[in-house]
Amino acid sequence: MTEQTQRPTGRARTTAPAGAAALRPLGEVRVWPRTFADRLTTPLPGIAGMTRLARERAMRPSAEGLRGVHRLPFAPAPLPVADSGTSAVTWAGHASWIVRVGGLTVLTDPVWSRRLLGTPARITPVGVRWEDLPPVDAVVISHNHYDHLDAPTLRRLPRQTPLFVPAGLGRWCRRRRFTCVTELDWWESAELAGVRFDFVPSHHWSRRTLTDTCRTLWGGWVLGDRRTGQRIYFAGDTGYGHWFKEIGRRYPGLDLAMLPIGAYEPRWWLRDVHTDPEDAVRAYEDLGAAAMAPMHWATFLLSAEPVLEPLRRLRTEWQRAGHPRDRLWDVPIGGSRVVAH
Fold first, then answer.
1. Percent of the chain residues topping a pLDDT of 90
2. Domain total in the chain
3. Distance between CA 272 and CA 204 in Å, rounded?
4. Where would I find the Metallo-beta-lactamase domain in this sequence (predicted)?
5. Cα separation of 238 and 248, whole Å?
6. Residues whose CB is less than 8 angstroms from the CB of residue 51 and which lie 6 or more positions away in sequence, other chains included
7. Cα 205 to chain centroid, rounded
8. Is the pLDDT score of 139 beyond 70?
9. Is 3 within a domain?
10. Among 308, 256, 235, which residue's Cα sits nearest to residue 68?
């Protein structure tokens, strides 16, 4: 039986220590406010900004910027062996990862479609064929933008697959007949088979139609194995800001941070909602994670930077900051790493 609850209003919940509140029940049906616009870090662009963007026509790479498409890193390989005591991550492309943690297989923002609404087709294939996936035990969604919440991909899953989603997104999932949908607010947690799912803030926004801006929440996830203590942070989609230090403070000793490095130009338009490579390194430092895995590039043409630039700038900034090279897990699409602890 599900329980109908009312989310407290105001910002008090965003300052409560992580883990202080009881775990939320799986599949709990909840009531949420009509809008989460008060969670925006900065106001969304107005008419003037949109007019400038249209005038500059700077939302896709130039012909010169596209010349490196054939050199984008794509090297699919078999998934590593991961038992109940070993964690591993495999990059399928964009923000889609296969995370093996605590004996579970968890998909993050799964997008296996070739085309998305309003977006050019993928420029690289998916790194892992759907047929080659192990049974999926859970899915986490960061927010409802089409390149992170893909209905055709979700339709491939059994409807009893547990979904962990931001506040307000449960109704969308239940309309598609998913039977175990757990909605969380920032700093809330739930647990499945010994793996803890913590929903944490990000600097972003949400919209799926012309009339639902900020009607659902956005954020990232910390996946924690309660038995081994391993914890993996998935940022989803985000700009740089104060939340990274707060996440690092509440979750010390993160083993891995999966951070976005692409879709950042023009900077005046995207700075507040997408980290560039230098921002991603700052976020990694704020989090205090042991290793960083870049994502959110080399898959869809969402912005104007040259296709190979994100990884080049990331490697340059990583070296400039003096971080050990083996802590940068810049795997190709289809590549994997085992998480040590």
1. 87
2. 1
3. 7
4. 106-297
5. 15
6. none
7. 13
8. yes
9. no
10. 308
pLDDT, residue 3, reads: 36
Supply the angle between the helices 277-287 and 309-321 in degrees, to the nearest 10.
40
Separation between Cα atoms, residue 300 and residue 94, nearest integer Å: 7
The pair of structure tokens assigned to 26 is 């799986």
**Measured distance CA(73)–CA(77) in Å, rounded:** 13
Alpha carbon of 52 to those of 45, 57, 71, 269, 317: distances in Å? 11, 8, 32, 9, 30
Mark residue 208 as left, alpha or beta (left: phi above 0; alpha: psi -120 to 50; beta: remaining).
Answer: alpha
* 3-class secondary-structure state, position 275: coil
Residue 299 domain-assigned? yes
**Distance (Å, rounded) from C-alpha 336 to C-alpha 291?**
14
CATH number where 195 lies? 3.60.15.10
| Domain of 134, in residue numbers | 83-339
Q: Lowest mean pLDDT of 30-39, 82-91, 269-278, 297-306, name the range.
A: 82-91
Confidence check: pLDDT of 294 > 80: yes
pLDDT tens by residue, 202-248: 999 999 999 999 999 999 999 999 999 999 999 999 999 999 999 99
pTM: 0.93
Which of 230, 143, 185 minimizes the C-alpha distance to 18? 185
- 183 beta partners: 165
Token readout for 155 is: 């339709």
Neighbours of 21 (CB within 10 A): 13
Q: Provide the token pair at 234.
A: 């998935």
Provide long-range contacts, Cβ within 8 A and 24+ apart, for 33-36: 33/7, 33/9, 34/215, 35/214, 35/215, 36/167, 36/168, 36/206, 36/214, 36/215, 36/216, 36/217, 36/218
Mean pLDDT of 83-87: 86
* Averaged pLDDT, 254-262: 98
Peptide bond into 266 cis (omega under 30): yes
Residue 276 neighbours by CB distance under 10 Å: 26
Distance CA 299, CA 303 (A): 12
* Whole-number percent of the chain with pLDDT over 70: 94
Tens of pLDDT, residue by residue over 6-15, are: 333 333 334 3
Amino acid, res. 296: H
